[in-house]
Amino acid sequence: MATPALPHDPYIVSVVAALSAARVEPTCVETLDREIDRYDTGLYADLAPTLSALLIWNGEASAAPGGSVALVWEHPEERWQWAPLVVPGVLEDLEPLPLHRWADPAAVVDVVRVLLAGLPVPVADDPRLFPGWVDAGEAVRRWTTSR
Length: 147
Fold this sequence. Notes:
This protein has 147 residues and is of the alpha+beta class. 26% of the residues lie in helices and 24% in strands.
């Protein structure tokens, strides 16, 4: 990612640094600004600038169904969102994550590890997860499939 130029770039740079430190670095990172707010269908939707970030993990880095995973940060959306990328470059059916728009980068790392492991998405509003949640979830999944 280049030198921060958009208002949310420093935050996204911090998130990517935390992901890299945790060895779950995305394959692609983009930050964007747009002139159309896709959440506003009113007359002035094209006059409401929005900010977004897209983080993608390709199929080689992910055990998630469909292979690739995309994480989306958007303003004015209040939460991070995600979607499996079944078709490369096509985002469909974004689902909210239990991460506030400005969640601690360490919390984003925890949720990304869950997504990449192909485990169910956490639903609690608290962005902090049990530290061993991924390992425990994988162990339960292995146990269930061995029955």
